[in-house]
Backbone:
């Protein structure tokens, strides 16, 4: 029987540390990447989305739309300054199925141990999407990064659209510091889109 040679005592801490590093690297999962073949289109500054909204996807059991969606899903994430909650409006069309939509309200600073949300279904998904589509939501690019940086406080809306082969995300920030009539064209469009969503949710049917 072959017996392993004994390790000198001075090398034992080095060996144990090396084994610890190997075990640690095996337990770490690689950062998630979008599925190959998806046309990714990102406009403006999405830092707020990546910091506060994207980490909530698993908690709300929502799929990461960077992987695409069969056949269409549209989301709007909305947050108003000085409030402790945010909303996400979801409109989707499943293959060979009817449209569906819902609104989820969730705490902005919540952790996995205190997470809770309110979900309201709406039967007017196709009607809402048709209105948004006619108003150019598919080509809306939101504000550029420089415009986003000029704002403080106010409201932020982040738009996601995913199909089987594409994903686009853009954002718009409406500042409470701007006097009425000083909003850019992008801000006015974002306000129009949010107006559609809020009005439809006042009458969910």
Residues:
């Amino acid at each position: 029987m072959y017996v392993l040679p004994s390790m000198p005592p001075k090398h034992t801490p080095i060996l144990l540390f090396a084994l610890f590093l190997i075990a640690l690297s095996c337990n770490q999962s690689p950062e998630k990447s979008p599925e190959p073949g998806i046309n990714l289109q990102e406009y403006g500054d999405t830092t707020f989305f990546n910091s506060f909204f994207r980490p909530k996807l698993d908690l709300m059991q929502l799929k990461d739309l960077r992987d695409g969606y069969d056949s269409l899903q549209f989301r709007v994430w909305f947050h108003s300054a000085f409030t402790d909650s945010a909303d996400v409006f979801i409109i989707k069309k499943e293959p060979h199925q009817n449209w569906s939509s819902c609104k989820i309200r969730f705490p902005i600073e919540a952790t996995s141990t205190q997470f809770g949300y309110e979900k309201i279904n709406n039967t007017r998904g196709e009607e809402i999407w048709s209105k948004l589509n006619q108003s150019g939501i598919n080509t809306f690019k939101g504000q550029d990064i420089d415009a986003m940086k000029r704002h403080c406080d106010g409201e932020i809306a982040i738009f996601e659209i995913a199909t089987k082969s594409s994903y686009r995300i853009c954002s718009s920030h409406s500042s409470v510091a701007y006097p009425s009539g000083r909003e850019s064209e992008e801000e006015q469009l974002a306000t129009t889109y949010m107006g559609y969503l809020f009005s439809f949710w006042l009458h969910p049917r």
About this structure: The helical segments are 12-27, 47-53, 125-134, 145-149, 185-202. Residues 1-7, 11-31 have pLDDT under 50 and may be disordered. The beta strands are 39-42, 72-80, 85-93, 99-107, 118-122, 155-163, 166-174.
